[in-house]
Amino acid sequence: MIQEHLGTPPRAVPAPAPHRAGAPAARRIDHARADCTADSRGGLAFAVRLFDETAADVPAHEAPESAAVLLRLRQQHGPDATVRLPLARAEAGETLHATLAGTALLREGRWDAHLDLGDEELLRLLPGMNDLRSLAAGATFPAHAWLGVRIPYTTKHGNLSVRAWLRRPHAEAGALHLADGVMELHGTFHGVRLDTTAHLEARPRDAAAAPVRVPVRPDTEEHPGQATAPDDGPEGRHPVRGFTTELPLDALLSFGGVWDLWLRPAENEEPVRVARILDDVLNKKRVFSYPAQQVTDGDGTAHPVRPYYTVNNNLSVEVG
Amino acid sequence: MHISFLIFSAYGMGGTVRTTFNLAQALAEQHEVEVVSVFRYRDKPFFEPGNGVRLRSLVDMRRHRPGYQGDDPEHALPATVFPAADGNYKQHSALTDRLIGEHLATTEADVVIGTRPGLNVHVARQTRRGPVRLGQEHLTLATHSARLKRVLRSNYPRLDAVTTVTEADARDYRKHMWLPGVHVQSLPNSVPEPAVSPADGSGKWVVAAGRLAPAKRYDVLVRAFAEVVSERPDWGLRIYGHGREEGKLRKLIDELGLYNHVFLMGSANPIEAEWVKGAICAVTSSLESFGMTIVEAMRCGLPVVATDCPHGPKEIIRDGEDGLLVPTGDVRAISGALLRLIDDEGLRTRMGKAALTASARFDPAEVAARYEELLTSLVNHRPGAVHRARGNLLGGAYAAKDRIRQGVSHALEGARS
């Protein structure tokens, strides 16, 4: 018979009496958990709770003054691969607080969250409650020079990481309709004006086949649906424009494999990857799913063709 | 009081585990509380048992541990105390019979609480003389097989009390099981106050959550939402959960061309973070023993549109005040109720606030207080030998009658074959 105590209370535990002078050193901080809240300006607030090895609360004041949340970009090095967010103690609170400002630049990728207590070792942060409701209706922050969201998530090892996207210019995919062998895509383009030469480019991945180009129509009026955005941002410095494009799927039958979709806003501009990165959904691949279309080639053979989101939430089309 | 829960596995992620831990933790503020898990499959429980609750297990099923008991020869022998009519029979064995029996024969608890029919039978038959014996029904009598009902009838007279999660089910127990001297009472499941602030109703998502199982009738919800989209294309539906209906639902969404509006989100934990992104919760089940998701959503400030199915929804929702009840399976009525809330922001906000207030009655502290009252009165008026003896007699009489009936039906089956 196995007996054990398992008291792992996240809240509702009365804090022990403060240490008297001359009392033994503060208890060891064994692990820490962070609740993350996305604010309406693109920022991400961390509320960190500390625990000892018996999973009992360690009061916030027992953490050193220099304590910080340290975000490290996975598999990357250099000055912009580490972000340090100082932790502040709330008045008489059980938690420590740090904020990643909406205006702070965070390279695109997966950032592992650590607690830095000033000693040699970093403590990997554990996830708590993530409140991302401010992102759920579509996250565009007009004050930013970049597009993207930061989504806290639990890794497969049970730790807290933050997935960040950072793009400008950016082509955000919206509603997508499949009918009669044509993929009709609505979206919004951010950062550069779309002109009459704008077009969508489907590029075969890992193959020498020629890209397929189709024109992109900027919306003349406001875009319907949740992707609605004002025509231009403040002072016209951040142009935002809805667009529609129609891709005949039989044009992709020249290569049986994956085609990545890019949008070139004007003939003389660089193309940008079409993606869906402006909401609270971490992995689009399973959630945004589209039915395969049967497209017939010149020999009368039917091929299944299906748009899908990649692991990075970029839009591609798979030809079977 | 010393209160001891007996549960199949405290290490799983089912509703019984969660509601047992909620109740155990709330009771532990005043009492000594333990949760005894028949099986242990993992090192750590999926949910936290809560402050002050002692958790222990009887049979170690962790293969990587030296104490692994899954290969004990006694575990290969069939159970005789745990009834074959309980759906978990296959996991039980002569070993579990013996270890549960030893635990119940030596327990120092004042109250022993079983959490499913098979374990309630153990509690009824093997608890030593003295402690109060309570059997919890987390499902419903109506959904049990005739065979299981016969087993319960012959064993439950030896309990002191049976609790159900709805009044409707308590009525069924009183009506269909003759349990003289056994106190039958409904006590709802509890849901703690969420650790996120409530929804403000400004989102444009309808949210549903639960296993993707046939009884949840998500197909009805998806069809109803097609009607919503045709009027309000700016709204979307998110369905959380996994299950065997996933493929069918995906196909239905594709057929109806709803892939820009209806999303199968997969599992989410904690689910509260997802409720608060929504403005309305939808429950379109054909059957809900209780309706845990209804309470969860209400505690997050969402008005719920739910089918008036047996047994739980109508005991949780006050129709027109803190949510809307619609006829089961009625696509038109469901889309109508959703659109009524979607089109009327004032009504939506009002009902959301009412839901938040009304659902406080399911707080673990409230439910635990009602349990405490029941347990205290049972302990103080501990039914003496008279009731127990009668229970034994009655159980025996039922068993004899049921054996005869079984014999007859077997004979009839034999005649037909």
From TrEMBL, chain A:
UniProt region (Disordered), positions on chain: 1-21, 215-242
Protein name as annotated: Transferase
Organism: Streptomyces cacaoi
TrEMBL record, chain B:
Pfam families reported in the protein's UniProt record: Glyco_transf_4 (PF13439), Glycos_transf_1 (PF00534)
Gene3D superfamilies in UniProt: Glycogen Phosphorylase B (3.40.50.2000)
Annotated ranges, domain Glycosyltransferase subfamily 4-like N-terminal: 13-191
The keyword Zinc-finger appears for this protein: no
Keyword Transferase: yes
One GO MF term: glycosyltransferase activity
Keywords assigned: Glycosyltransferase, Transferase
InterPro entries linked to this entry: Glyco_trans_1 (IPR001296), Glyco_trans_4-like_N (IPR028098)
Name under which the protein is recorded: D-inositol 3-phosphate glycosyltransferase
Organismal lineage: Bacteria, Bacillati, Actinomycetota, Actinomycetes, Kitasatosporales
